[in-house]
Structure prediction request, 100 residues.
Amino acid sequence: MNQVVVHPQAVQAFGATSAALGTAAATAGAIDAAAVGTAVTAVFGIIGQEFAVAYAVAQANHLRAVGQLAAAHAGTAAAAAAGLASFATADGTGAGGIGA
Prediction:
């Protein structure tokens, strides 16, 4: 049970998917912030100021969480790329020792 098999293409695809998810989450958060903020102001106007203030706090918390999610995906992508580079270096070094 001490054998490890790494498929570099799978790790690379995983990293690329994580990067794409991070970008998509960040983009969705930016679009949501712009669209919903404008809509809330237009719909509730002066009468709904208390609701709009409470909603702004909730929206800020939501956008912070979306940003954290995007950062987590970006971090996963970076870790996958670094791990793949480290694996490739170690694998190349090991393969060089076999041919000697």
In short: The two ends are 27 Å apart (CA to CA).
